[in-house]
Write a structure and sequence with these properties.
It catalyses: 1,2-dihydroxy-5-(methylsulfanyl)pent-1-en-3-one + O2 = 4-methylsulfanyl-2-oxobutanoate + formate + 2 H(+); 1,2-dihydroxy-5-(methylsulfanyl)pent-1-en-3-one + O2 = 3-(methylsulfanyl)propanoate + CO + formate + 2 H(+). Its EC number is 1.13.11.54, 1.13.11.53. This is Acireductone dioxygenase. By secondary structure, the chain is α+β, with helices and mostly antiparallel strands. The chain has a single domain, classed as Sandwich (Jelly Rolls). The protein contains six helices and twelve strands. The relative contact order is 0.24. The mean pLDDT is 96. The structure holds 4-(methylsulfanyl)-2-oxobutanoic acid and nickel (II) ion. Nickel (II) ion (NI) binds next to loops.
């Protein structure tokens, strides 16, 4: 995992979009946004380690997603588009990367700028409920991830709007960040 400030250039979303010079973001800074990160090497017994985290944090359900042309078929283009629309969920978004790579962008809560999180196999990322975020593949066009859920998955992406600004989960998120 590597996180840095997004450059906001209107070029292909799959490019790194790193500023020059780079402005790295630490795990501690991500934690302040409520974003959690662990590395669980895929070469080891990762399933056992995931089971431990899942038990500690009450993640009861899981499935696997393949984001690639082969994995998504006819839904590929529309999925890629909707993943990259800025949105929030009313539940955590938990992903463990098994293969491939991609980018999660999360909004810095104070400055409202994008932070890009480059993820590769072994990364376990938890986005808190109420955080504005989006996802894109990189130029390799492939990622395989485990999705974990507390209960039934709350899939609904709420695109950022006047409505999400007053959404109770957004309000709760801001409060949890001391805002
Ligand atoms: C999501 O909800 O944005 C995704 O599941 C993206 C692919 S998982 C790395
Ligand atoms: Ni999402």
């Amino acid at each position: 995992m590597r996180a840095y400030i997004y450059d906001n250039e209107p070029t292909d979303q799959r490019l790194p979009h790193e500023t020059s010079p780079s402005q790295p973001i630490s795990v501690e800074a991500l934690n302040k946004l409520g974003v959690l990160y662990w590395n669980i090497p895929v070469e080891g017994d990762w399933e056992q380690e995931i089971n431990k985290v899942a038990e500690e944090r009450s993640y009861k359900n899981r499935d696997t997603i393949n984001v690639s042309k082969e994995g998504l078929g006819d839904a590929y283009e529309s999925k890629i588009r909707s993943f990259f629309e800025e949105h929030l969920h009313e539940d955590e978004e938990i992903r463990y990367i098994i293969e491939g790579s991609g980018f999660f962008d999360v909004r810095d809560v104070e400055l409202d700028q994008w932070i890009r999180i480059a993820i590769t196999p072994g990364d376990l990322l938890v986005l808190p409920a109420g955080i504005y975020h989006r996802f894109t593949l990189d130029e390799a066009n492939n990622i395989k991830a485990l999705r974990l859920f507390k209960d039934e998955p709350k899939w609904v992406p709420h695109p950022r709007s006047a409505e999400t600004e007053v959404n109770p989960y957004r309000q709760q998120y801001l409060q949890s960040r001391g805002i």
